[in-house]
Design goal:
The chain has one helix and 35 strands. It is mainly β and 392 residues long. It has a single domain, classed as Methylamine Dehydrogenase, Chain H. The chain has a five-stranded mixed sheet, with no helix packed on it. A four-stranded antiparallel sheet has the order 2-35-34-33, with no helix packed on it. The longest helix has 8 residues.
């Protein structure tokens, strides 16, 4: 690792042993180009409180009819996907009657929401996990996890699975929040701020950890089916040995695609854990995939397209280098990313060429953009929730 990069990281280490990774290179200026199409904002809302520089795991989700968003001040809100009209809004409070907390006050939400099976889950910086009824916002239960939740929980098969910053993956019963099993992985002395969101696919939970490992676990009992190192620590110092699977990974019906900081992009067979291919790409943001390609935002905010069958590099895009891009999202026939100045960039999936861009509110976009049919939903750090559509 170059001295410049070491100094950049060293200056950003938090007290808890976490590093917040910003662009390791100066941001590229926006390039001039002729837009291939127009992008229209069809609605926007002040969905969230300002969470600037907190690097939270808050992101919008949708069930196809509504968009759900959470804010740092404890508010969870449902909006109509097409109109942006508010359907319901709830502010969570931490209970105090049983000694769990000193007194009731608003939860500082740091992850989620996640929606599935008519349920909505969120996590808090104090370890609070809450489950709500998606249709009404009714709070079904709250449960204290072992530490802060910085990744959206997963919902499926009657469970809510939560990844906490102490390296634990905990399964809670969706019915009442009771703890069913816990799997722990060691946390290195220095990690990136954040956690990878677990994914439930059929009867398996997939989880990425701060030690660079990807695990597949039995949903019913937490038994480890396989584990794969996506990144392996090397070097003399904690900074050089920093590995982290914090970014978004993609689980399909047969293959899981993942990437890690100071590691590789990798395809793993879901059933056996066999590594199908690897490509040396370091990322803390993550990736998306379709049936042909895997798309990665690397540590310098260069974008890569890899062949989904072999991992071969199809193209690299460096026009947005240093702009602190989100993980990419496949939207219609395009690839979309958000940047540190609140711009949403539309690129060709075939070549990586920029096709359009639109500015939201000037504040950083941290979470991957949400694609729902022909609507793209964006949440910024200043609290704007915006829905976009492509027009001619």
């Amino acid at each position: 690792m170059h001295t410049f990069r070491l100094l950049m990281l060293a200056g950003l280490i938090a007290l808890a042993g976490c590093a917040s990774v910003e662009p390791l290179v100066p941001p590229e200026p926006l390039v001039e180009y002729t837009p291939a199409f127009n992008v229209q904002e069809i609605w926007s809302a002040g969905a969230a409180s300002d969470s600037e520089d907190l690097n939270l795991g808050l992101r919008p989700v949708s069930d196809g009819a509504r968009v759900y968003a959470a804010s740092y001040d404890g508010t969870v809100t449902a909006y109509d996907l097409k109109t942006g009209d508010e359907v319901w809004s709830v502010t969570l409070e931490r209970p105090g009657e049983d000694g769990w907390f000193s007194g009731a006050h608003e939860v500082e939400l740091s992850a989620g929401p996640t929606v599935a099976d008519g349920l909505l889950a969120v996590g808090g910086s104090d370890g609070t996990v809450a489950l709500l009824e998606a249709a009404t916002g009714k709070v079904l239960w709250q449960h204290p996890a072992s530490s802060a939740v910085l990744a959206p929980p997963a919902i499926g098969g009657g469970y809510v699975v939560v990844h906490t910053v102490d390296g634990s993956l905990t399964a809670l019963a969706a019915g009442n929040g009771s703890e069913r099993w816990v799997v722990e992985q060691p946390v290195p002395a220095l990690t990136l701020r954040g956690s990878a969101a677990p994914v439930i696919e059929n009867d398996t939970v997939y989880g990425g950890f701060d030690n660079g490992k990807l695990l597949a676990l039995d949903l019913a009992d937490g038994r480890v089916r396989w584990e794969i190192p996506v990144a392996t620590p090397s070097g003399r110092t904690d900074l050089e040995r920093l590995v982290d699977l914090d970014g978004v990974f993609k689980v399909t019906s047969q293959v899981t695609y993942a990437t890690a900081y100071h590691g590789n992009a990798m395809a793993v067979a879901n059933l056996s854990g066999q590594v199908l291919w690897t490509q040396e790409v370091s990322s803390f943001r993550g990736l998306d995939a379709d049936w042909q390609r895997v798309y990665v935002t690397d540590e310098t905010s260069e974008l890569w397209a890899l062949d989904g069958r072999s991992g071969a590099v199809l193209w690299r895009q460096d026009d947005l280098r240093g702009r602190n891009l989100t993980a990419p999202t496949r939207f219609q026939n395009f690839l979309v990313v958000g940047d540190y100045e609140g711009y949403v960039h539309f690129l060709s999936t075939d070549t990586g060429v920029q096709l359009a861009r639109v500015e939201i509110d000037g504040s950083r976009i941290v979470a991957p953009l949400l694609a729902v049919n022909d609507i793209l939903v964006v949440q910024t750090e200043e609290g704007t929730l915006a829905a976009l559509k492509i027009t001619e």
